[in-house]
Records
---
Amino acid sequence: MTEHTKTDGLPGIEPGAVAPVLERARPRNERMASDKIECNACPILCQIAPGRVGACDRYGNVDGALVRVDPAVVLRRTAAADDATLVAFAPRETQAEPAAPVATDADEYFVTGIGASTTYPDYKPAPFIVASQADGVDMITVVTEGIFSSCSFKVKIDTDRYLGPEQANVRCKGEVVGHVMTAEYGSQMLSLGGVHHLTGGSKKEGRVTCATMEALGNKAAVELTIDGGSQIVVQAAHAPIVNGVREERMRVGCGSATIGIFARQFHGLADEVVVVDDHITGVLTQHQAGRCLDMRASGVKIRGRRSTPGRYFQVANPGTGWGGTDIVDPLSIIEGWDPATAWPGLRLLMVSTTGEHAQWYVLDAALQPRPAALPAAVARIVARIGENCEPSLCSVLFVGGAGGSLRAGVTDNPVLLTRAIKRSLVNVTCGGAPAYVWPGGGITIMVDVARMPDRSFGTVPTPALVAPIEFTLRADDYRALGGHMDVVRGIDDALRHGAWHRDGAPVARRTEAIAAANPWPIGRAPLLG
C-alpha cells in the first residue's frame, strides 16, 4: 500500500490520450487550492493537485477532472474458443484508443470490475450496469470495484513439512497479519488479513496487512514468518519455499494410507515396511492390508501411541524431516524387535509419505537393522510413491463479505440482491472468475486468485482492499428486485465510454491473459454453498 504519492505524472496515461472521466467530486473545499479537486471515491477524500494521483494511486486530477487512472478490463469470448475459455480483448498498445464498433459480436464481451471504479459514497448505482444476451435471453451484469475491509485470504500450502502450530501468529515484516489454521491431508492452511488486522490494531499493522493482502491477490510472492514455526514464501500457483527450500511434493497420503495403497506391491519384496508420518505412521505387517495378504508378523516395536493395528500417532515431534517429523534417522522411532517373532535376514524398508526419504535395512544375527543397498524392484515402488504425489503448490483464495454499500449499487433495496443470490438467480464473479457464495446470511464470496486477471486487486488507505465483483442475472429478475434500470447501457456504449459520463471519451482497456480456463460468466448457474 502506498502513502500519499509524490508522483509527477499520471501512470498509464500517455500524453494526449483521453482518459475515462468519472463523476466530478463534490464542490471544492473552500480551504483547498483552487486547482485541486477532492476525490470522493473512498472515505480518505484526497485533495489532488493537477497531474497528481491520490493516496491509492487509482484516481488522478486531469485538467480539473477526477479520472480513474487504471484502465478497465474487458474479456472477450472468441469464435475459436469454446464456452469455457476467456481470452484477451485487445492488444495492450491500443488500450487508450477508442473501442472499435462491436455491434456484430457485442454479446461476446464481458466487462469486469477491474478498473471500473466504486460506488462510494454509496448513494449512486454501480459504475457499469450492462445489458447483454445469452441464448436469446436478456441479461444484466452489474459491475463494480468493492472496497472490502471485511475480507481475508485463505492460503492452502501443499507440503509435508511442519509450518507451525495451529492458531500461531503469522507475521509479515514483524507485524501479525494472520494465523495458522488446521492441516488438511497434506496441506497446511493459513488465514491472512481480516478486519481485525486491518483496522483493529496499530496503523503499521493495518498498513502491512493491507500491503500483504494486495500482493497475495495480485499473485506476487510474500515472505511470512510463523511464530514457533517456519519461515515461508508463498505465491499463488507456485511451490512454497519453507526455510529456504522449495517444496516439490504433496504427500500421497498419511502413513496408513500409503501402506494400504502399495501393500500388494511390497508383498514378497519386503518383510516389513514402515511409512514414517507426523500424523499416522503405518506398519505393513500389523496393518489390516498386511494381515489380509497373510504377511508374517515382523516383531517390530514402534514408539508413539498405538491407534489401531498398524497405525501409530505421535511417533516424533512435527518438523521438516522424514514424513513431516523432526527425525533425521528413521530408526529412532523403532524401540526394538521381539526376539520370539523377528528373524535374522528380515528385510525392512523405512520410507516417507512422499518417497523423498527411503532406507533399506536387513536384520543381523543380533536383530539389529543394518543399512543395505535398496533393491531395484523396491526402488521402483518408492519411485511410484513419489509419482503419485502431486506437485506442491500454494493456493490463494480471496474471501470477502459484500456489504450493504456495495449492494446498494445494484438495487435500492439491497436485501433483495442477497435473496436473489441465495435463490440461484444471480451469478457472482470476480474479474470474470467464478466465485463460490458461502451459505448463511449476507453475501460472502470466495474466489481463486489464480483464475482472475493479473493485478485484479488494489487498496485504499483506510486501509481496505479493493476487489472486482460482478453480478449477472436475467433482465426481468433485475427489474423485479428494484435494479437501477434507468442507467442500464448496452455493451457497445460501455466499451466506448467511461463509467459515469456520456461525453464521448473512450474507455482505456487493460488486457490480461486468464491464468486458468473459466466458464463464460453470462448464463451460468452460481456456485452456491
---
Amino acid sequence: MNKYRSHNCNELRKKDVGNKVFLSGWINKKRDHGNLLFLDLRDNYGITQCIIDKENSNFNTLEKIQLETVIKIEGEVVNRSSDTINKDIQTGEIEVAIYKFEVLGVCKELPMPIFSDQEYSEEIRLKYRFLDLRRKKIHENIILRSKVISFIRNEMNKFGFLEFQTPILTSSSPEGARDFLVPSRLNPGKFYALPQAPQQFKQLIMVSGFDKYFQIAPCFRDEDARADRSPGEFYQLDLEMSFVEQEDVFNVVEKLLVNTFKKFSQKKFLFDKFPRISYADALLKYGSDKPDLRNPLIITDITEIFMREDVSFEIFKKLVKSGSNVRCIITKNTKEKPRSFFDGIDKWAKEQGASGMAYFTFEENKEVSAKGPVGKFFSKEALLELMKLTGAKVGDSIFFACNKLKELEKITSIARDKIANELGLIDNNSFAFCWIVDYPMFEIDDQTKKIKFSHNPFSMPQGDTDKINFKNPLDILAYQYDIVCNGIELSSGAIRNHKPELMYKLFSLAGYDKKQVNEKFSGMINALSFGAPPHGGIAPGIDRIVMLLANEKNIREVTMFPMNQNAQDLMMNAPSEVNEEQLKELSLSLKIKK
C-alpha cells in the first residue's frame, strides 16, 4: 500500500465489501444514468466499476472529466445488485462507491478511443503508440510477450543452458541482409555494424569451452517490412550447443516449443513428433519450404502425363517440350461444387500473374470421363493414369498449372492455400509444426548466374567431408534446418562447419579466396584454428512465436514500439537529421541523392 492505491483495479472481491479503499488508474468508460454516474477505472491489472450519486459534491466535476484522465478515488466497496453483476471481469460482483477523487494526470482530447477495438490507420496508431498500448487486446499481447520470454528463460535454464550477452557494435558481414552501420568517432572513416544475428559470437562461445549458450538477442537488419517481419529490429531466442548432432538440437527445440505453446495456448498439436520434410519434398508437395501442414492438400508433379500421345492439351504439351513442368492439386468430393467455384480459382490465379489454373472433375458414366473446360483433351487411359499418379477418385477435381519450376512452385503454393481456405479445410484451432531439412549448400544466383550460398555459409556439409564431390556444388546438402509452424518460419539453424580448411574450400566455390575469408571472418577462422568442438544451434523468432500464440496476423500487434512500413518511428520521429557539429565529430559529410 502507498498513497496512490490500497488495491489494484483487478483485486477487489465480495470479501472486501464494507472496506474503505483507494484506487488509481485511467477513466476507461463513463455511463451517466442521471442521478448515478458509473465510471470504469482501469489500470494494468484490470477494471473496477466505481459509482457516484448526484448528492456527492464531486458528481458534476467527474461527469465532465475527459476519458483517460488519471485519477485517484477513495470510497467503499459495495455489492452490485444481482442484475448488474458482470461475469466478464473478475471484479464484476462488487463496485466502489466514491467518496472523493483527485486528478493525477490530465488528459487532453483523444485522437483515438481506448476502450474500443475499432481499427485505426497505422499512422495514428504508431504516432500515438502509448495510447494504442492502453487498448485491451494489444495491452494483453504485450503482457503475453513478457510472460513467454520469462517462461522460455526458465525452460532454457532447466535444459542446462547459460545466458550470455554478445556485442551490439560489431563488424559488417558480407552475407545476409543489409547492415545498419554506425560511424566510429575514434576511428574516422570506419564503421561498426549492428548485428544481423549473434552468429559468429555464439560460435566463438562454443570455441571458448562453454557447452550450452542462449540469449534473447536483439537483431538488426535493413530489410523491407512484411506482416511477419519488422523493419529494422527483432528479437530471437539464440542458442548454440557443443558436441551435438542435428537430432540433439531438434530434441531441445521441440521440447521447448511444445512446453511453451501448451503453456500459453489451448490449441491442439496436429503432430506430437514434428515431421521431418526434406527441402526438395517441401517444394514438390507444398510449393514452399514454409508449408502450412494444417492444410491437407498435396501438390503432385504430373508432367509425364503431357508426354502421352492420347493427351491433346497442346498448350501445355508445347510448354513441357520447352522445359516447363505441370503440377496439380486434387480436391476431394468436389463434384457438387458450382462452376463459379472452379472459374473463381482460375480467375484468381490470373490475378496473381499466372496464366490461370486449368481444371476438371473426374466422373464415371460406364467409364471414367472428365467434366470441365479441358476434360475433352484427356483419353480414358490418360485419366486412369492421372488418378493413379495423384490418388484421385471419381468425384474429385483437379487444378493444374504449367510453368518453369520456380514460378510453378510459387503459384501452386499460394493456390494450395487459396483452395483450402475456399473449401474450409484449415483447422484454425491447431498448431502444425515441422522441420525442413536437407537444404542445398549452394544455389545459382538468378541475376549473376554464379554459385552462392543458399542458406548459411558457416554450415557443415552432409556426408564424409573427405569424400565430398566439389565439382558438383549444387549436389552438396548441408546440415541446415528450419522450424515452421502453420506456414510461418520460426527459425533457421545448422550444425556448424568447425574445420577451417573445409570452410576455405566451400567459400572458394562461392567466389571467395582465402585472403577474403581471412579478412571478413578473421575472428571466426582464427578461433577455429585453436581446437573447435563440433557444434550447432538455431534461433527461433520471439516475435513470431508470440504472434502465433496471440493469434495475430501482423507482428506489429505483438511488438511494443514498432516502426511503420517505411522503417520510421512516427512517435519518436526517427530516423532524424543530425546537425553539422555531430557530422564533424564523426568526420562525415552528407551527399543526398536527389
---
Amino acid sequence: MLWIVITFLLINAGIFIFSCLRTKDINLKTSDGYFLGGRSLTALYIGSSLLLTNLSTEQMVGLNGQSYSGTMSAMAWEVTAPIALIMLAFVFLPRYLSSGVSTIPDFLEKRYDQRTRQIVSILLLLGYATSFLPTVLYSGALVLDQVFSISSVLGTNTFTTVFLISLFIGSASCCYIFFGGLKAAVSADAIYGIGLILGGLFIFVLGLMAIGDGSLLNGYTELTSVHKEKLNAITADNSAEVPWPAILTGLLVNNLFYWAVNQSIVQRALGAKNLAEGQKGALLAGVFKTIGVFYLVLPGVIAFHLYGGNIANPDTVYPKLIVDLMPTALVGVFAAILFGAILSSFNGALNSTITLFTLDLYKPIYKPDAKDEELVTTGRVFVVVLAAVSIIIAPFILFAPSGLYNYLQEMFGFFNVPVLAAVVVGFCSKKVPALAVKWAIPAHIALYTVSKVFFGHIHFLYILAVLFPFSVLLMLFIGKIRPRAREFKLERNARVDLQPWKHAKLSSILVICLMAGIYLLFSPWGLAQ
C-alpha cells in the first residue's frame, strides 16, 4: 500500500509541475491568457482535453456499472458523440471563432441582448454548482476510497470520507486553476488522457485474460459465446440505457448541447490556435470517443462474467476490477491516472463557471470598466468559493437516488434544450428577437417538469426529441409575429486564423465509418448474433 501511495503522489506532483511550466509563455494577467490559454491550444491538447473534461468517474464507474447490470446499449453515450463533435468542427466552431467570443453566453449577447446572456449564464452556473461539480467530487471520492481503503485506515464513515477526499480533490483542482488557468489544465489533460486510455485498455486486456484463465484467446471466446445478449447495443426496449430510436433524436439533441454549446467543453475549442487546430482537436476527440467503448463499457460485461450478478451495487464494479486485476506495482499509477480524470472534469467545469461568472456577470453588471488583472483576481476568488460550496454539497449526494449517471443527464435536460435552440436559431435566423429566448426557456422548463410528473415512464431522451423542435418553432413563431426592428448581422472579430483544415471532411467520413463499425460489431449482426 505504501508503494501505491508513493507512486500516486509522485506522478500527480510531476504532472502538476510540468503543467505549470507549460504556462511560462502565457500572460496569466489577461483574460484570454487565463481563461482561454492565450488562444494558443493545438489539436493534441484540445482533443485530449475534450476527452478528459468529459471523462471522469461518473463515466468510468457509471457506464461500466450500466453494462454490468444491463447491456452494451449504454455505449451510445460514448460512441454517438462524434456526430456532435463533427457538427462542432464544421458548424459551431467557425461561427464562434469568427465572432471572437470567449463564452457561449457572450455569443448569445451579440445575437440577442445582454439580458439573454445573463439568464443563460445563471442557468449554466446553477447546473454546474448544484449537480455536476458535487457529483464529480462524490463519485471520485468513492473510487479513491475503494482503491486506497481510506475509510478503513481513518476509521471514518462514508459521509466523512467523501468530505475529506472531496476536500483533497477540490484543493488540487484549485491549484491548477488558481496558478495556471486553462493552459495548465489542458497540459495536464494531454498526459492524463494518454494514460487513461492505455490504463483503461490494460484493464480490458487483463479482464479478458482473467475470464480466459490466463489466455486472451480463451477470454475472447468466453466473452463472445456466453451471455451474448449482453453484447447487443441495439434495442428498442424503453427500459434500456439508450433505446436505439433515441440515438438520432433525443440523444443527438443531448449530445449537441454537451459538445457544441456546453461551456466547459466548448471552452477548450475556443482556446484553439486557429480554426484548423480546433477542427483537428474536435475530430481527434471523436476518434477517442469511439474506442472508449473498450474501456468504459466492455469491462462491465467482463465483470459480469467474473462475478456473475452477485454485486449489489453496480457502481462498485469498476473499482473492484482495478483492485482485483491490476498488478500491485501499477495500482498507484492507474489510481493517479484515474485521479487525473476526476481532476480534469472538475477543472473543466470549474474553469468554465468562473469564466461565466467573471465575464458574463461580474464585469457587465458590477464592473464594466474592470481591467483584465482585476478580472483574473475575481476569478481566483470565485473559484475558491465555488469549490468550497461543491465540497460541502458532495457528501450529501449519498442520499440521492440510485442511477446517478442517468439522473445527471436528466437534470441537465431542464435547461439544455432551450439554450441549444437559442444558439441554432441564432445561427439560422436574422429576425428572431431576444423575447423569443425569454419565452422559450420558461416554457421548456415548465413542459419538462410536467413530463417528469405525468410521463415519467417515457425515456427522457424521447421527451427531449419533442421539446427541442417545440422550442425552435416557438422562437421562430415569435420571430414571425414580433421580428427584430433591424436584422441581425454577425460582425467578424476573429482573433485567430479561420482557414479550415484541408483534411477535415475526409477525417469526418472516416470517424463516421468507425462509429458505424463499432455499432455493427455490437449488434445482432455482429458479436451479439
